[in-house]
Amino acid sequence: MKIIFLAAAASLVAAPALADAVQNAYLLCQVIDNTGLSSSPCEVSGWSGTVTATIDMDSANARETCTGMVGMLKQKSVRFEGRQWTLQITSPYSGGNSIAYCDLPQ
After folding, report:
1. Which residues contact 42 (CB under 8 A, 6 or more apart)?
2. Are 88 and 50 a contacting pair, CB within 8 Å?
3. Which pLDDT tens digit goes with each residue over 26-38?
């Protein structure tokens, strides 16, 4: 399952250097939602600087997925400039609590 998720992330198109962080967050959500692995639509909060994905996986796989997603974003030169943004992965069984999180590239 993690391989499918990361393969979909690899299709992420490199954003222009000055692209808005919020636009990049929505692009990331689109990639996550297009994997078909999300239990509910990905959410973006510009206020708190978070991208939240709900995916049915355990915390070990979620940590690997989070790290892999950040690596793909860096490889594609997608940046979240201006402030620190975070990718949070929750499980449908975690009561809305993060099972993994990682800082998105600046």
Report:
1. 28, 29, 30, 32, 33, 51, 52, 53, 54
2. yes
3. 999 999 999 888 9
Amino acid identity for residue 29 in this structure:
C
Per-residue pLDDT reduced to its tens digit, 50-99: 999 999 999 999 999 999 999 999 999 999 988 999 999 999 999 889 99
Strands (E) across 1-106 are located at 38-45, 50-55, 86-90, 98-103
Q: Kindly list the domain boundaries of the chain, sorted by start residue.
A: 2-40+52-103
Give the whole-angstrom CA distance, residue 3 versus residue 7.
6
Q: Which of 69, 15, 71 is nearest to 42 (CA)?
A: 69
| pTM to 2 decimal places | 0.82
